[in-house]
Amino acid sequence: MRLAGPLRIVALIITMGLTWILVTILLGGPGGGLPRIQQFFTSDTRARHMGHICYHYSEPRARKYKCGLPQPCPEEHLAFRIVSGAANVIGPKICLEDKMLMSSIKDNVGRGLNIALVNGVSGELLEARAFDMWAGDVNDLLKFIRPLHEGTLVFVASYDDPATKMNEETRKLFSELGSRNAKELAFRDSWVFVGAKGVQNKSPFEQHVKNSKHTNKYEGWPEALEMEGCIPRRSMAG
Question: What contacts 110, CB < 8 A, 6 or more positions away?
């Protein structure tokens, strides 16, 4: 009978100890606060409302394909996206098959015409250069596009002013690459274009916005242009 008192004390100590351990687990230990308990409730709510999880989580983003296209290109096609410069502030971008060929980050764009030459069979970049069409020498551009090989793809994005230094030969060469708008390109127009050496018809990949104080988006410049699409690879024979 004399042991009853000490046994009660031991039982009480054990009970208090177990209670402390349980509270520590639920509260996540020192500094844990209520998040652990809230996690239990959240998990339980999720388990009981699996059919409504979409209301508690953000919708998954739409999948993007090469160069950010909304859908994949067919086989034997090259995915591309071209963005012209915005006024004289934001430089142009040329992306092909998820590779950025020209951009401000790559530090290979400049005022005027930004041109990337690509092997039409392999899709590999041959050369990329910017030509100043305001204060530069147009002969540098002519030397660049005159000797193009058959099947070479030509990607062009304007920045600031694409046309002041253009002459008749330059416009003729771009027209032969498939451009419809090169002949009328003027001071501070926005222009993006994809052509090829040896094409028989005009290119479907071209956009042009004229510089007009009545319609310009920026003070002194029209809106920037963005164009994307899928270009058929050239055959070895073509």
Answer: 91, 130, 131, 132, 159
- To 5 degrees, how large is the angle CA 226–CA 143–CA 77? 40
b/e map 163-196, b = 16+ CB within 10 Å = bbbbeeebbebbeebbbebbeebeebbbbbbbbb
Q: Report pLDDT digits (tens) over 73-118.
A: 999 999 999 999 998 899 999 999 999 999 999 999 999 999 999 9
- CA-CA distance, 182 to 178, in Å (whole number)? 9
User: Which strands make up the sheet holding 206-209, listed edge to edge?
Assistant: 125-131, 112-118, 153-159, 190-196, 206-209
Asked whether the CA dihedral 158, 163, 167, 171 is positive or negative, the reply is positive
User: pLDDT tens digit string along 189-202?
Assistant: 999 999 999 888 99
Q: Is the CB of residue 83 less than 8 Å from the CB of residue 96?
A: no
Q: Model-level pTM?
A: 0.73
| Number of residues in the chain | 238
Judged against a pLDDT cut of 90, whether residue 154 lies above it is answered with yes
- Dig out the tokens for 36 from the structure: 């652990």
Report d(CA 30, CA 34) in Å as an integer: 11
